């Protein structure tokens, strides 16, 4: 579900109908809940689906069967053996989702009246402040680049088969 649709739905439910959370602005920790849910719910569905399929692919492998045959608790088999080996595709998806979060934050900041880089970019575009637009896009691109570098370095930490010279 796209953020421009989910955000207003969450506002209607949690702010207008139930009156649990503020509609917009920055009024303490409660103001973080709706924007975080708006950005995170769509991404979490993809990540959960990817985790499940990756684990289903890992479960019949010999090292998982061996861990179970040794009598290890199922929780340890899943967390220590299966999930660690299923993390490479998940890290790739998380790296790609960071870019979607950066672009989704522009819409989310506008919906929830949060000052941020996304709203600043939109205001700079509307005001035709081209140096500011270029600076904002450069900051977003550098963030995306650094996140992808971090994900690539995490590959080596998660999977010992991946080594960088």
The tally of domains stands at 1
Oligomer: single chain
User: Structural class given helices, strands, pairing?
Assistant: mainly alpha
Q: Give the averaged pLDDT, no decimals.
A: 88
Q: Can you summarize the main beta sheet?
A: none
Low-confidence stretches: none
Helix percent reads over 70%
Number of strands: 0
**Secondary-structure element string:** HHHHHH
β-strand percent reads: under 5%
| Distance linking N and C termini | 41 Å
* Rg (C-alpha, Å): 21 Å
Q: Outline, from the CA principal axes?
A: flat
Helix segment count?
6
Provide a descriptive summary of the structure in words.
With about 160 residues, this protein is mainly alpha-helical. The protein has one domain. About 80% of the residues lie in helices and about 0% in strands. The protein contains 6 helices and no strands. The chain is flat.
In short:
The chain is mainly α. The protein has helices spanning 3-17, 30-58, 62-69, 74-111, 117-126, 130-158.
Topology (SSEs and partners):
Elements: H1 3-17, H2 30-58, H3 62-69, H4 74-111, H5 117-126, H6 130-158
Helix pairs in contact: 1-2, 1-4, 2-4, 3-4, 4-5, 4-6, 5-6
């Amino acid at each position: 579900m796209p953020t421009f649709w989910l955000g207003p739905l969450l506002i209607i439910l949690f702010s207008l109908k139930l009156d649990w959370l503020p509609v917009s602005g920055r009024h303490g920790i409660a103001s973080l809940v709706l924007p975080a849910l708006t950005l995170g719910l769509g991404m979490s569905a993809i990540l959960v689906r990817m985790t499940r399929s990756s684990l289903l692919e890992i479960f019949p492998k010999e090292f998982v069967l061996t861990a179970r045959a040794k009598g290890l608790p199922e929780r340890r088999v899943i967390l220590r053996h299966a999930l660690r080996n299923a993390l490479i595709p998940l890290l790739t998806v998380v790296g790609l989702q960071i870019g979607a979060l950066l672009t989704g934050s522009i819409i989310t900041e506008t919906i929830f009246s949060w000052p941020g880089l996304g709203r600043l970019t939109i205001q700079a575009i509307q005001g035709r402040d081209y140096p500011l637009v270029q600076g904002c896009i450069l900051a977003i691109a550098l963030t995306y680049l650094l996140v992808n570098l971090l994900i690539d370095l995490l590959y080596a930490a998660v999977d010992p088969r991946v080594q960088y010279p």
